[in-house]
């Protein structure tokens, strides 16, 4: 098997310094661990000029699209890496929440007003990877990449001086699509379904949006400074549009066939003083309601992973851990497993997408209720940004705290899990708290 070549570059804690060099290149994409402020992520990964751009067709089954991704990985060809790095060439892109419609039969009540393709990937034969643990930055070249292109990329990333970024600004304040009264009615409907025995929990979200102008990259740089998170990302779309994600949540990771998912369920705002902050964290850790919600999703994910993992390999090594971010505290658990011999990372996606933490339980019924009660399709929100390399290594986020800049407007969503004893005012406030730092940052640009 051929080995990737690696070229060292000066280490940069902030990937924006390097990404600026490819900002306007076709298929430019950044998976960003939120350094130097966020402390959980290890790697940043960026690339551009994909060999192929792959979007799911409106009537294409999820299985057929995932097979197309598999075929393109095979065409690029397996390769090894001389160093411990996460990506040896392969696929980088997004699955929207609505890619779930290609995997399961769901109603089509919610309006598709954003017209975002349900999945879009590039096939990349190089990447720039920063390892924040070892404080190194490397260019990684798949063995099929010709030498002249390797030299072009080395020269590109060795040049100082960057074009100035066009500023980004809102033309009006971000406003919610739902009124408080409409939100209350939707929650009452969910609780009616719960009482009728249809479901145990439904994740319900509302959308905020505004007309905007300028470069989405400028918005992303401001957002990552205000809210650094370990599963951030920026993906260029055609016509100057972009996906901007400031997600704290992993979906599924596959490394040497070991699988991990880290669901978030349970949230409290950060306090204004150290004492208030500690009290909010303690309240979250002790909350029977939040622990019950978290456990419900852990059980759902154990079931999802069980579809593609070796029988008996699924475990819950971590339950109800506290993770704190600039705006909120979260309750997080971990579910792990080992892929069955005849399964791969794309089978895992087919069996577990979209993530249970952002649908509810049972999953399919919760997704039907979401489609009935959320007036518009989620698109990118609650989907996933991910990479999958030619070795089968994969990591993916759940695209919460995420924005879409498209057709001259920016959209952002906030939501939460609704259960039998949820209070609508508290849930309404939580959906705003989760994205307030993003909305405020955009407002002040």
CATH architecture: 4-Layer Sandwich
- CATH superfamily heading: Anthranilate synthase
CATH topology: Anthranilate synthase
Number of domains: 1
Q: How far do the termini sit from each other?
A: 50 Å
Radius of gyration: 21 Å
Helix content: 25-40%
| Global geometry | globular
Return residue spans where pLDDT drops below 50 for at least 5 consecutive residues: none
Average pLDDT score: 96
Strand content: 25-35%
**The first-level CATH class name:** Alpha Beta
Specify the number of helices: 11
**Strand count:** 23
Report the structural category.
alpha+beta
User: The biggest beta sheet, please?
Assistant: 13 strands, antiparallel
Domain Chorismate-utilising enzyme C-terminal: 180-434
InterPro entries: ADC_synth_comp_1, ADC_synthase, Anth_synth_I-like, Anth_synth_I_N, Chorismate_C
Enzyme class: transferase
Keywords: Transferase
What does this structure look like?
With 445 residues, the chain is an alpha+beta fold. Helix 6 packs across helix 11. It is globular, with a radius of gyration of 21 Å. The longest helix is centred in the C-terminal third of the chain and has 20 residues. The protein has a single domain, classed as Anthranilate synthase (4-Layer Sandwich), CATH 3.60.120. It has eleven helices and 23 strands. Strands 1, 2, 3, 7, 8, 9, 10, 11, 12, 13, 19, 22 and 23 form a 13-stranded antiparallel β-sheet that branches. Strands 4, 5, 6, 14, 15, 16, 17, 18, 20 and 21 form a ten-stranded antiparallel β-sheet that branches.
Short description:
By secondary structure, the protein is α+β, with helices and mostly antiparallel strands. It is built from 11 helices and 23 strands.
């Amino acid at each position: 098997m051929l080995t990737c070549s690696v070229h060292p570059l000066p280490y940069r804690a902030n990937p924006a310094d390097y990404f600026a060099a490819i900002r306007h290149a076709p298929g430019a994409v950044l998976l960003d661990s939120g350094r130097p402020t966020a402390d959980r992520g290890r790697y940043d990964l960026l690339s551009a000029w994909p060999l192929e751009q792959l979007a799911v067709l409106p009537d294409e089954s999820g299985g057929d699209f995932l097979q197309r991704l598999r075929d393109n990985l095979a065409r690029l060809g397996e390769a090894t890496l001389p160093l411990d790095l996460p990506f040896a060439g392969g696929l980088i892109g997004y699955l929207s929440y609505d890619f779930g419609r290609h995997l399961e039969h769901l109603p089509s009540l919610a309006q598709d007003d954003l017209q975002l393709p349900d999945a879009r990937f590039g096939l990349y034969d190089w990447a720039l990877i920063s390892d924040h643990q070892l404080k190194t930055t490397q260019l990684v070249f798949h063995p099929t990449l010709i030498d002249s292109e390797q030299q072009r990329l080395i020269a590109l990333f060795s040049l100082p001086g960057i074009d100035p970024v066009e500023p980004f600004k809102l033309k009006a304040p971000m406003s919610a699509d739902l009124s408080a009264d409409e939100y209350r009615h939707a929650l009452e409907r969910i609780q009616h379904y719960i009482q009728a025995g249809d479901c145990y929990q439904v994740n319900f979200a509302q959308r905020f949006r505004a007309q905007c102008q300028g470069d989405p990259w400028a918005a992303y740089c401001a957002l990552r400074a205000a809210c650094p998170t370990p599963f951030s990302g920026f993906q260029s779309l055609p016509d100057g549009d972009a996906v901007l994600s400031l997600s704290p949540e992993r979906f599924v990771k596959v490394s040497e066939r070991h699988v991990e998912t880290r669901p978030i369920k349970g949230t409290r705002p950060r306090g204004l003083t150290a004492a208030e902050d500690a009290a909010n964290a303690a309240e979250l850790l002790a909350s029977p309601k939040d622990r019950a919600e978290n456990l419900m999703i852990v059980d759902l994910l154990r079931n999802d992973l069980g579809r593609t993992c070796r029988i008996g390999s699924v475990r819950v090594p971590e339950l109800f851990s506290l993770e704190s971010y600039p705006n909120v505290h979260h309750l997080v658990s971990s579910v792990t497993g080992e892929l069955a011999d005849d399964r791969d990372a794309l089978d895992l996606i087919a069996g577990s997408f979209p993530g249970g933490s952002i649908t509810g339980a049972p999953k399919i019924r919760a997704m039907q209720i979401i489609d009935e009660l959320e007036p518009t399709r989620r698109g990118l929100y609650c989907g996933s940004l991910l990479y999958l390399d030619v070795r089968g290594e994969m990591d993916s986020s759940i695209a919460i705290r995420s924005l879409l800049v498209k057709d001259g407007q920016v959209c952002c969503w906030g939501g939460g899990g609704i259960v039998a004893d949820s209070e609508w005012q508290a849930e309404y406030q939580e959906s705003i708290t989760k994205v307030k730092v993003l909305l405020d940052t955009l407002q002040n640009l």
